[in-house]
Amino acid sequence: MDIVFRDVEHRYQINTPFEKRALYDIHVDIRSGSYVAVIGHTGSGKSTLLQHFNGLLQPTKGTAHLGDYTIVAGKKEKQLKPLRKKVGIVFQFPEHQLFEETVEKDICFGPMNFGMSEQEAKARVGEWLALVGLPEEVRHKSPFALSGGQMRRVAIAGVLAMEPEVLVLDEPTAGLDPRGRKEMMDMFANLQRQKKMTIVLVTHSMEEAARYADDIIIMHRGTIVRRGTPEQIFRNVDDLIHLGLDVPETVLFQRAIEQKFGIQFPEPCLTIEDVERSLQTLFTRVKRI
Ligand SMILES: Nc1ncnc2c1ncn2[C@@H]1O[C@H](COP(=O)(O)OP(=O)(O)OP(=O)(O)O)[C@@H](O)[C@H]1O
Question: Containing domain of residue 125, as a range?
Answer without folding.
Answer: 31-55+77-229
